[in-house]
């Protein structure tokens, strides 16, 4: 029995040493190594199409569409396209009063991929750049100018920085905190160390023809960004993180929506891990660490909050039995502190305030809610799981 317990302990060590080292390496990389963009190849204002798929988003889509028109970019060089799925007739009428294009779609089972495919096939014009937003996203006024500048430097796949639109509840603060850590480790850290940064479904920009060719070949239900990233890497296109291009995104402010959203994310993570696992390992033997990282290494972790919760639990257990196994306890303490260090390096000092400390009290609830998400994974990718939005204004601009 003791041998089985020891074997289990070592297995957990291997997993958490890998998980902790992975987070810490990229956190340090993003902290000390700046992302240096290539010099511009050509100075011009490229044509841009901003796609905003909107599924049952009547409450937020009108102000979002109006804000999208306020870009400091030549008006004849960009177009806003709302892909309207299951919007009310009144909403559609009001949208058509704006200087935008509205494409109505309807499906038995809606997905963002299907909506974008219909929109791409219906558009008569061609563009240089495609930008993808969510229906709640608000771009900063210079967003398209910064995307254009980076595209002019030869980058075909660009991930902008997504930050919180709202910080109204403890869960919204925790969700914003999670986004910040993801931005630092999986985007800034990855780009700084020469890997492809993680795409996140919105605030993304692509070479238009490459985007169209790629998405027309997809049938993803959830997590289309994960599959798109892999397909683009296979074609030789690595994504770059553009930290200075800001898009505001609504954060989850209710516990029930938190669980629903995480169920979708966890499901897509493991689905695409399974789908591209062998291709990813094959790329390793060909020396392609970038594809191996995006298909395998990044996806074999449990969600970060689950890892943190398990590390706390395991450390606490070993502290109770410290006198029996002091070496084991020291290992778990070290792993927990190292994992927490990756978070500290990822969060700007201005984020630490009274509201942040109060929000930490909700971490156990978030851990339990995310743990319950694992019980709902079986059917999570069979239908689109919609997260409702309710915030029309950007409440916080300095984070």
CATH topology of the domain at 48-268: Spore Coat Polysaccharide Biosynthesis Protein SpsA, Chain A
Q: From N to C, what is the helix and strand string?
A: HEHEHEHEEHEHEHHEHHHHHH
CATH 4th-level superfamily of the domain at 48-268: Spore Coat Polysaccharide Biosynthesis Protein SpsA, Chain A
Largest β sheet strand count, sense and barrel closure:
8 strands, mixed
| Structural class assignment | alpha/beta
Name of the top-level CATH class of the domain at 48-268: Alpha Beta
- Low-pLDDT stretches: none
* Strands ordered across the widest β-sheet: 3-2-1-4-7-6-8-5
The CATH architecture of the domain at 48-268 would be Alpha-Beta Complex
- Binned, the helix content reads 40-55%
Whole-angstrom Rg: 22 Å
For the residues shown, what is the average pLDDT? 88
Tell me, what's the shape?
Answer: globular
Number of beta strands? 8
Strand residues, percent: 5-15%
Description:
The structure is a single chain. Helix content is 52%, strand content 12%. Strands 3-2-1-4-7-6-8-5 form an eight-stranded mixed β-sheet. The chain has a domain at 48-268: Spore Coat Polysaccharide Biosynthesis Protein SpsA, Chain A. It is an alpha/beta fold. Helix 3 (89-95) links the parallel strand 2 (78-85) and strand 3.
Short description:
Helices cover 52% and strands 12% of the residues. The protein has 399 residues and is α/β, with parallel strands linked by helices.
